[in-house]
Amino acid sequence: MHQPIPSLFSSQSNKRETNVPDYAYDDDDNVMVSFAEIQFHPEEDNIPNHMLMSGKQFKILNNKLNSLLQIQADTGGRHSKWTYNNIQHEITKFRDVAKEHHILFVEEVQKSSWKVYVVVETIKKLAEYNNSFTTKVDVKNEFDSKVLLKLDEVLGNLKESMSKLDLSQQSTISMESISKMISSLEKSLKINLALILQLMSFLPTNCPPVK
Prior knowledge:
This protein is mostly helical. The chain is 57% helix and 0% strand. α2 (81-131) runs antiparallel to α3. 10% of the residues are buried. The protein is built from five helices and no strands. The chain starts with 54 loop residues before the first helix and ends in a 12-residue tail after the last helix. The protein is rod-shaped, with a radius of gyration of 27 Å. The chain has two domains: 28-38 and 47-106; 112-197. It has helices at 55-75, 81-131, 137-154, 159-163, 175-199.
């Protein structure tokens, strides 16, 4: 009797081979991938195999391969060798495509994470400057101008929205104008995050935890 296959994929790295534990995948559609599980360097080939397909897909393919091995054992390998090799080739192609999708997803997460950081820091600086008591209005206006200029440089798509804010009659930026800017930033973030939501459809919906 043959031994069950521990993993569908042979590791492309020479360091070690990743074995996938036998988890139950009965409720494949209700489990979301954890962001903690995608923290790897996108240029390195260390993506866990179980993250490249959903639990149901993995279980189906693994059962097919085990069935082929059983046929090979029963027939002495006369009929199943070619089919087995062909399926292994298809699995390899599937892994390559899944890895490309995963790398694109990580890149978009990193880009949007940086944009969110800039927005948060900008709003914090605006709030800090405007909530602190000072009689040096000229100095305060200079700080506000620098922060707004940086915000305009980093988030170019907000330039039109920023230009519509009437600050000419104010000695400093009011909380009302900050509120308007925050609303504009929220709209911009929704646009930037839309691509991430689209790329998430390429990820598996069921991933066992990484030990």
